[in-house]
Design goal:
nine-stranded mixed beta sheet; four-stranded antiparallel beta sheet; globular; alpha/beta; 16 strands; about 575 residues
Amino acid sequence: MSKPTDVRPIAAALYFLPITTRMPLKIGPEATTEVTCARVKLTMADARGRTAEGWGETPLNVQWVWPGALSYETRHEVLKRFCVQLVEAWTWFAASGHPVEIGHAFLERELPRLLEQTNAGLGPGAEPMPWLAALACCSAFDLALHDAFGVLHDVPTYRTYTDEFMNADLAHYLAPAEGADVSFLGKFPAEFLVPNPPDTLPAWHLVGDKDPLDESELTRAEPDDGYPVLLRDWIRRDGLKCLKVQLRGDDVWDYARLVKVGRVAVEEEVDWLTADFNCAVREPSYVIDVLDRLLWEFPRLYGMILYVEQPFPYELEANPIDVHGVSARKPLLMDESAHDWHLVKLGRPLGWSGVVLKTCTTQTGALLSLCWAKAHGMTLMVQDLINPMLAQVPHALLAAHAGTIMGVESNAMQFAPGASRPESAVHPGLYRRRDGTLDLSTISGPGFGYRVDAIRRELPEPAASRNRGPNPMSDTQKIWLILWRRALKSRKPRDPFEVAEVVPDVAEVLKISDKAAERLVRGLLKELERLPDGKQFFRLEGDAVVPLPEFADVHQDPQSELAAYPYEL
């Protein structure tokens, strides 16, 4: 059953905000020196025609989401073009409900189609854009969806993850691990969130593998901009208590780096370390040897390591490595793999202890992974991808509500401190670490509590925008769009498909039974037969839907879906 609080997208606008990092940040084999942030304004409407705008922002960190042989600029441009495509797709997406329901439907149905379409357009033999990159592009829209819902109903977004607002419980999305005493029936995300989230969080500082630890490592090319360069200066300036050490997968270098950072940490009274191997390791014995040697030679440093992050390739399906030997020594958290609860489920029996959540792989996906992991007793962490400007707000909120092993990683103030000046004037505690913590107390109001109206940032002209107006779509229009989108998935625009293929989508969108959905689909197709030739678009032949020549003529036109819809049947 639908609820009066249900919403649907009706407009979207996309802005690109480029930033330059003051220091290079190594991610895998590549270093980041510039990042484009995709900022999205998404407008939602309810059944009464009331509307609200929501905001989302994500750094398009090319090296993290798309490691590959193509040049940075080639990959960067593909990501930006994909974001532009998403403006159209989100504006016309035929789904209504709660943000988790709409976001999940988009991730299951629309995003795979768009990614397949994009990769096909890159040409035969071209390096394909990965799913992780598609998620990062989509996340700004998904965040804006969750924000707009809270704004429309005048409540903070995290108070909407209950049965008061959601139509379906978690059993609609999640399945427990085999043999686990876990059920998601009748449960909603709010049950897995911290009921009274803290206003302050311990902040983790990233010690990048290119960051100088002392004067002997200076290259004389470091910036002279008033911000620290050396690790000790950062610790003293920000009162840091938690350091994340970035490693390379080179055993000699990794061990020496851990020891050197650890010694600085002890001298400066830092409490915690974590080791991030950046997917550079193939054998668990590598990590075990590093940890065991540290335990034997520097037991205090070993005790300071709170957890180990993603040493192994994140494609778990292709690399089902048994990691129990590592997780027996320290909690072992998956990072890039944690965007999908199915992968978390796959990793648990392999020995992974927990997951790293990131808003840059969608708020919807992070919530579902969070709920699955917590229900199965797994550890949580929230980590960064250089989240400046608006991106920092939902990032910090996710950590506060998740109940992490220890605070949140926050490194935008290290690598791009000047990028967030307008936002820091409103939320100073989010963009400057004091006493080793972030202060979230200025976040207030509905949605994510950005307080956008108080932030004096001038945005560039939109890179793309679409608006289909606040008028509610009829059920017939929704069915029409579902037929159209299914026809687009075929290899050829005239390929028929079964009525049964669209029934589940119609049932989900309209919140009706499969039987009722099939009846409505067949009814619409029968009505189309009354229209003149050239205006019918689809024909029903037995149990098959057959696209007609007029569909083949206009199917690639992104404006054509509702423009072609015969409103007066």
